[in-house]
């Protein structure tokens, strides 16, 4: 009996010791896990370079750098498989616009309910190098058969996936992405984002890059993960003005764009916690396509930009350039030359309107001509008449000779071989007399127009050659003779700012290696 009691006491003591040891182990492990996490998410204050020198950056510093799974683009054709919600969905249209502007081939499929997928191979070769889902939840909720087919294809042919999640009022506060160690927290208001300088996919996007202030909208999604395959690309802070989802773990920074390095299941992915409205998302999206395609679908980093300023000397009194305007033009040109080698404004002149403004504006005309060697010049018709209104070639020649005589008198170069017609008249549809007169008077070799084959959408514009004259596709920056005042810009100044910060003008420069603007 005493032996049994002793054994019971010994066993109880052993259990207590084991429990104490386990509890101590848990506490120690939790401590090191917590401190390790804190180290992994350590923030270091640095000074930004270039335009951000006056900002304090908070770049993400990873404790352990992981290497992405190698991509072999030789097994697939350079084509994107794009799953969209509908033919007219906004995000789908934005993705298509970028693919088409970049001249990337794609095949669009409206995402079916069960996740059916088109044939992925042809004679043993992969048909697609990247798969893009407008709604990543449609990928996650595919039936097991189709998802297994798609993921097997991705692994075997080294194909990657890009996905977006745009939360709405019906989105649950948090979502577990099926089959992946990843949680999504929805409808979060964010601010002060920073690009992770250690992200391997960055190419056009520069890091560290900080965007101060609130991010547009309050429908952002942030990602939480517990696997080393994930690396944040874009990190942000929570806005304090709006409470976050109750289930969202507390952290210094939250990832709204992440890269899956393929260490979990052999498939690389890039996931966005919103659409492409935010300008940094556009840059990262283009970088993701380049990286995940093994540089098969990539844009050159070189840009050639020509800015035409039409209608020099043209305009009503009170709207023309004075001395201060000309000085500002020269200062702007010098400023741009610090970023764009040899940048020079190209001025299109109509000589008939010289000295037809106020006294201050006439002085501006004189300063322009005293600075003639600082700019490039091209003829823009003597009286700013539209060439298609001239039905015979001799009348056009007469007008051009007047403008050429004005140029010679004032030392304006006449041998550039480039001209632009007022309102692009006569360039396309072709007015034969215009081309003949250009060649006779100015020896024109190159012109440009925004009208071929259609004005909109701009990404469809192309060039052509007629009568030995090359016609280049021209872009617009939204500034015209009648929109010269910032506060009076159509739709308000915010419309111009939107075009610059991720809108049409931003994308035009981003996606066109050669840009001719007016």
TrEMBL record:
Domain Heparan sulphate-N-deacetylase deacetylase: 302-506
GO molecular function ontology, one term from the record: heparan sulfate N-sulfotransferase activity
Domain Heparan sulfate-N-deacetylase N-terminal: 76-292
Keywords: Golgi apparatus, Membrane, Transferase, Transmembrane, Transmembrane helix
Main location: Golgi
Subcellular location: Golgi apparatus
Membrane listed as a keyword: yes
Keyword Secreted: no
Cellular component annotations (GO), alphabetically ordered: Golgi apparatus
Transmembrane segment boundaries: 12-34
Protein name in UniProt: NDST4 sulfotransferase
Organism per entry: Scopus umbretta
